[in-house]
Design brief:
Shape: globular
Low-confidence stretches: 11-33
Distance between the termini: 71 Å
Strand order of the largest sheet: 3-2-1-4-5
CATH class of the largest domain: Alpha Beta
Mean pLDDT: 83
Largest sheet: 5 strands, mixed
Structural class: alpha/beta
Strand content: 25-35%
Helix content: 25-40%
Order of helices and strands: HEHEHEHEEH
CATH topology of the largest domain: Glutaredoxin
């Protein structure tokens, strides 16, 4: 009987320590939203493929970073920015490795080739555009709260689309107006 009581006390203590660490010591740990500070957001989406010659151009990562810096500098203080990498790769690991050349992303969508969720959303369905790679789609998003306190995207509109290596590298030399 003594062993059973010790086990129950140890399990209860473990539960209390875990609860305290999660909800008392770090009260926002469960509800934290990285980089999402305001109701308005600019999403900058890079669509590339490791099998596309223009996407593999060694000058493309520098152009992508210059465009991202330009956009981030022009935003108001109350607008968040999210950088999203979409790699139309057959295998997810190939897409992740390929996106590494471009730096850090807030979100990555990889795998499934042309049936990739990002490709379908940003080139084919929701925000139809030319089926050209590489491509950068800049979206303005507005978020709001539901009655239950959860956040949802109320609107998403394309404000700029750059397609093809030449268009992207040309835009990288300018300040992008949104």
């Amino acid at each position: 009987m003594r062993g059973w009581i010790r086990s129950a006390v140890a399990l209860f203590a473990f539960f209390i320590v875990g609860f305290a660490a999660t909800y008392i010591l770090r009260p926002n740990a469960v509800a934290a939203e990285p980089r999402m500070r305001y109701d308005d957001e600019i999403a900058v989406v890079l669509l590339v493929s490791p099998t596309c010659a223009a996407s593999r151009n060694p000058d493309l990562p520098a152009a992508w970073n210059a465009i991202g810096d330009s956009i981030a500098k022009t935003l108001s203080a109350k607008t968040s920015v999210a950088f999203i990498g979409v790699a139309l790769s057959a295998e997810p690991k190939d897409g992740l490795e390929f996106l590494d050349r471009f730096g850090t992303f807030d979100e990555q969508i990889v795998g499934r080739g042309a049936y990739n969720t990002g490709a379908m959303a940003y080139m084919q369905e929701l925000h139809r555009g030319p089926a050209v790679l590489p491509q950068i789609v800049v979206l303005r998003r507005h978020y709001t709260l539901r009655e239950d306190g959860t956040r949802f995207m109320a609107s998403e509109v394309v404000v700029r689309r750059l397609w093809g290596f030449d268009d992207i590298t040309s835009a990288a030399r300018k300040t992008l107006a949104l």
